[in-house]
Amino acid sequence: MEATKAAQRMLTVRIARGTEEGSFTTYEVPWRENQTVLDVVTEVQRRLDPTLSYRFACRVGVCGSCAMTVNGRPRWTCRTHVSRVEEDGVIVIEPLRNMPRIKDLVVDMSEFFDKWKKAGNTFVGTATRDDPPAAVSPASRKRKMADAAIECINCGVCYAACDVVSWDKEYLGPAALNRAWTLFNDERHADPKDVLRKATSGSGCNACHTQGNCMTHCPVSLSPTGSIAGLKKNALLQFLKGGG
User: Fold this and answer.
1) Does domain 110-240 bear CATH number 3.40.50.300?
2) pLDDT tens for each residue of 6-32
3) Domain 8-107 adopts which CATH fold?
4) Helix, strand or coil for residue 39?
5) N or C, which terminus of the chain has less Cβ within 10 Å?
6) Cofactor comment in the record (predicted)?
7) Mean pLDDT in residue range 34-63
8) Pick from 193, 196, 228: which is nearest to 209 by CA?
9) Could you report the per-residue pLDDT of 208-233, keeping only the tens digit for each?
């Protein structure tokens, strides 16, 4: 009977705790088939340490709220299988970088969203409720430009991956500038020139070093790097035309 029982394989999980960098607690959890990193964090919180703080909602890669740093890389933990990231049976889980830590794996995203406002990302329409819907052709150049960047769900992975954000706390960041690019190309928006002005002023798109970390780490394969390049190009063209 005993000989037929296979020893349960265990996974070692080091999780950042508290509010200070470098403080970790180590846990041992059973290694299961098709186990995700979010499954592991949830098991630790429910069975081993109910004081552990973290965020999650949908569990299926729609909300982006479960983003954490896993073995040094920002990821959606609900879509990251342990078998893809473990190193010799160990995974290290930390909060996203470049944002203040509230507790354990939870970060304060206030500055992330504040930078959206600074990038001029509030849509202002030109139509009223009485007007017919805008006829925007899916084949139009501007619509295609917006389509390439519009699927961002504000998970913060690109912001956490960006080295420029680490160096320059005023830098608007890839997500805010990616959104500015979609709004600049939105034919319904009242003032695309204002979007361009805000996205390029101060530590805006011109502060980007084009390293591509945002593009490499984006869970939905967007290219904020390409969006930022588009903003730079159009700002230059506007300047040459005497409009900047």
Assistant:
1) no
2) 678 999 999 999 998 889 999 999 999
3) Ubiquitin-like (UB roll) (3.10.20)
4) helix
5) N
6) Binds 1 [3Fe-4S] cluster.
7) 95
8) 228
9) 999 999 999 999 999 999 999 999 99
